[in-house]
Amino acid sequence: MSDGPLSLPETLSPDFTARATRTAQATLGAGDLELDCARLRRLDSLALAFLSHLQAEADRRGRSLTLRGLKPELREALRGIRTPGSGVSERSREPSLAERAGEAALSAGREILSLGLMLSEALFHSTLGLHRPKTLLRGTTAMQMIRLGSSAMPIVLLLSILIGFTLALQSGLQLQKYGAALFLADGIGVSMVTEIGPVMTAVILAGRSGSAITAEIAAMTVQEEVAALRSLAINPLHFLALPRFWAMSITQPLLTAASCLAGIATGMLVGMLFFKLSAASFLGELRQSLPFTYVWQAAVKSLTFSWIIVFIAVTKGLGVRGGADAVGRVVTACVVHCIFAIILADAVFSFLFYL
Amino acid sequence: MNDTPALRVQGLKAGYDGFPVLDGVDLEVNKGEIRVVLGGSGCGKSTLLKNAAGLERPWEGTVELLGQKLDWSEGRPADDVFGKIGVLFQGGALLSSLTVAENVALPLRIRHPEIPGGVLRELVRLKLGQVRLEGAEEKFPGELSGGMRKRAGLARALAADPELLFCDEPSAGLDPVTSRGLDDLLLELRKTLDITMVVVTHELDSIRALADRVTFLSGGKVVFDGTLAEAESAGPQEVRDFLARRPDERYGETAAMAFHFEQ
């Protein structure tokens, strides 16, 4: 654009407005701004917003904006522009980086505190507090076991079979080169029981059951159903978390066992079909390579993972604020946090169990 | 009438995510009274109700329900406080996975599992009769209209015979006839059950039908407390404008932009 007053066309296009805004702002940065409005024929919403924005910008910087040659009828229209006064709430100031960091730290602290409180309360009511009056409806734990656990069986089995097949085939081909195909049983057995079974089942349940728990409880929270429970002297944590806690505590180790068995059985089939192994030799080798310690360690892992899923899912659901969009956000956050926490816990277990 | 107020709120400050909504609210509701809390949208009516009913923790101030001060030192007030109050939520807040009968029976099933099933069913039938919702026992909340959901929520709130009932916007979203029916129902329940009620609303018809006294909130503070007649005759201008449905001048207050023109 040339020097001198910035000249406006008959009507302002979005493209022109974008360029003119940048030019005008640069001019206002250095001094006062003049606009040549002689050709301007129409003040549509975009033109009004453009001029209003520049006037506000000029006021903010202590500069002046002069509109030259504006037609009288357009002047009247421009005088009609009104901005919100003191009675209307002003847009709040954007928080600084330090404020945002502080707010995030406080929020994380609150979340950890609430998770800790819930964990301790749920553990207390599942153990020492069992004799206290319960706030559970008959059959809810069984119903949750079906919804959160049993119905995940097909997907857990299918994925375990596929992983068992791939793992057995890939490792069998390598072992065969050294005439050690029998050790396929060791590889499949140990990897399925110590890692793949517990972790994969936990990740599937985090995505399937964790998200379902969060979505259900978050929807109840935004629809005031949780507040209604409180008003009826019903502890929402007991009513909502405990049935899910028990259901996941029972079903997840069972699903993990099913996953391990499916993976190992598939590995055995692969060994028999592709590497000429007999079932007896595979099982014999498996028995030798898989001490009972690995089995109970897998049980401890899967139980811990189930608690992680329930606690994160329930905390996210109860902590939701807002409407339907907030429900979507906490469900996503639940799955991400669950998977992260599961992998972190798995790393801790590896350190504790195998070092 | 007992001297202890059914509800006493003193110096209540509350809000969300660091944003203050209530700024030092005092409120006293006598037993047997219907107190209507009114004010424009966003003035903090529902926040006051939730804090007064012990559903949310106030930032500052105290709440006494039926002579018992709410103690938040253990993270939430004791359950026995909630046993004496009922809350009718704006949308009914029925548990969607339970039938109407199961919803109404829920507080008693949980707190008094020893009550025989037959007695509980009869009690549910009586409560649904009180709110004129006979025959809806086996329906799920999703199958009910907005008015029916509120009446089912009211039946549930009344299930444990509360002494104090909080109602959050009972007529919101209802057509005028259904809304009037609900107001009549609340008046009838007050008469037959002698319940104290705190009703949050901005529906003028409901205010006129229900209120023994009104408390007007504005900017997070109580700007008027008295009878409706006093409010209309001698209340602050803002309150009189509200009751006369005159637009509040503060809303939409604007200033002209000062453009500089040259030929």
Q: How are the strands of the largest sheet of chain A arranged? A: 1-2-3
Tell me the overall shape of chain A. elongated
Query: What proportion of the residues of chain A is helical, as a percent range?
Result: over 70%
Assembly state (oligomeric)? heterodimer
Number of E-state strands of chain A: 4
Low-confidence stretches of chain A: 85-92
Q: Largest beta sheet of chain B: what is the strand line-up? A: 6-7-8-3-9-10
- End-to-end Cα distance of chain B, whole Å, is 78 Å
What is the rounded distance between the termini of chain A? 70 Å
- Report the portion of residues of chain A in β strands: under 5%
Helix content percent band of chain B: 25-40%
Q: For the residues shown, what is the average pLDDT of chain A?
A: 85
List keywords for this structure.
heterodimer; A: 355 residues; mainly alpha; three-stranded parallel β-sheet; 12 helices; 4 strands; 74% helix; elongated; B: 263 residues; alpha/beta; six-stranded mixed β-sheet; four-stranded antiparallel β-sheet; 34% helix
Question: Would you write up a description of this structure?
Answer:
The complex is a heterodimer of chains A (355) and B (263). Chain A is mainly α and 355 residues long. Chain A has twelve helices and four strands. Chain A has helices spanning 14-30, 45-61, 72-79, 97-126, 140-149, 153-177, 184-222, 225-231, 236-274, 279-289, 292-318, 324-354, and strands at 6-7, 33-36, 65-68, 82-84. Chain B is α/β, with parallel strands linked by helices and 263 residues long. Helix content of chain B is 34%, strand content 25%. Chain B has a six-stranded mixed β-sheet with strand order 6-7-8-3-9-10, sandwiched between helices. Chain B has a four-stranded antiparallel β-sheet with strand order 2-1-4-5, with helices on one face. In chain B, a hairpin with a 2-residue loop joins strand 9 (213-218) and strand 10. In chain B, helix 3 packs parallel to helix 5 and helix 4 (117-130) packs across helix 5 (146-158). The chains are: A mainly alpha (355), B alpha/beta (263). Chains A and B meet through helix 2, strand 3, helix 3, strand 4 and helix 8 of A and helix 2, strand 6, helix 3, helix 5 and strand 11 of B.
